Amino acid sequence: MKKSLFVEMKLQTGTEKLAEALLLRGFPVELENDFISLRNGSQQDLHQLKIFLETLSVPVFWSESRFQLLTNHFPLHKVKEIIHFKGRQHSVHMEGYHFKWRSFVNRRYGIRTNTINLCPYTAIMVKALNEAGIVALAGCNGHGKHNPNFQLSGVYYGVWFSIIQERYMQELKLHYRWNVKFIREASNSIIVANKPEDKWDMNKVLADCYQMANVLTEHATELREWKRRTFKRKMKQTAETFKKTRDINQLFDWMNDIATLNDNCKNESTPHILKRRI
Q1: What is the pLDDT of residue 89?
Q2: Residue 117 burial (CB count, 10 A)
Q3: For residues 49 and 27, is the Cβ–Cβ distance under 8 A?
Q4: CA-angle at 10, arms to 7 and 15, nearest 5°
Q5: What is residue 9's predicted lDDT score, i.e. its pLDDT?
Q6: Long-range contact set of residues 35-40: C-beta below 8 Å, sequence gap at least 24
Q7: C-beta atoms surrounding 41 within 10 Å
Q8: Whole-prediction pTM value?
Q9: Dihedral angle at the C-alpha atoms of 47, 50, 55, 57, nearest 10 degrees?
């Protein structure tokens, strides 16, 4: 588990600084042999990354789908420029069937999002949620005025994230309280930050998202498999009855009990899932 958001900059090469900045901006990159590449990236992701680097005039050498910084030095102001790069207004749309139990059960991954469009500071979390199989439609950093939040695809993903949060994120040292909130008469869900202080600190928002995203990315394969073996289409009637009656607490307890029974994790140090009221 990484303990801090920024590693010691003086010890990093230019390529390492570039890779870290891109990661914090939401591009799921990895560094190997001084080359940067996208982790589980598509051609669309690759195209967006090329446009992003060209827009910011970052000199790189491409070797197929990998690239390398052409200078030994990468100044801190360029790191900040990447991390703080503003998102763009974009529409978010999902068909009605995406919010149904069948879609929740069948879908293994989330959706592909345009990283350049996503808000800075929270983009890394949107990408990590989708990589872990939790459909995140969009994220907003709150712009220092409102609660940062992530819009999920329906109530089932909201409950599922709550279960994952209790299992995997209890030990994180977060600056804000991130909880699932059910909205629109319990027909949809968001992950929303709550603060004990008067002003939002975007560096703290980014630090929290980095920690949570790191957990989701590290366990993405495990989480997708846990969900696959746990929830079945034949459970539709029970699930949608709870949804129809808006009984989120019973829905949580039911999904949590099933998930616990199907959790074959061999790591004895992982705390047992606790029942709670949402």
Answers
A1: 77
A2: 16
A3: yes
A4: 75
A5: 57
A6: 35/63, 35/66, 35/67, 35/68, 36/66, 36/67, 36/68, 36/69, 37/65, 37/66, 37/67, 38/65, 40/131
A7: 18
A8: 0.88
A9: -170
pLDDT digits (tens, 9 = 90+) for 199-230: 899 999 999 999 999 999 999 999 999 999 99
How far apart CA 51 and CA 57 sit, in angstroms, is 10
List the structure tokens of 259: 């998930």
Q: At what angle do helices 14-25 and 76-83 cross, to 10 degrees?
A: 20
Strands (E), 74-153: 136-140, 149-152
Sequence-distant (6+) residues with CB within 8 A of 80 are: none
Structure tokens at 168: 């995997």
| pLDDT number for residue 11 | 64
137 contacts 188 by C-beta, under 8 angstroms: no
Name the CA radius of gyration of the chain, rounded.
19
The DSSP call for residue 73 is -
- Condensed to tens digits (0 to 9), the pLDDT of residues 85-112 reads 999 877 766 677 778 999 999 999 998 8
- Could you report the per-residue pLDDT of 7-28, keeping only the tens digit for each? 455 567 899 999 999 999 999 9
Cα torsion at 16, 17, 21, 22 (round to 10°)? -40
If you ran DSSP here, which 8-state letter would residue 265 be given?
-
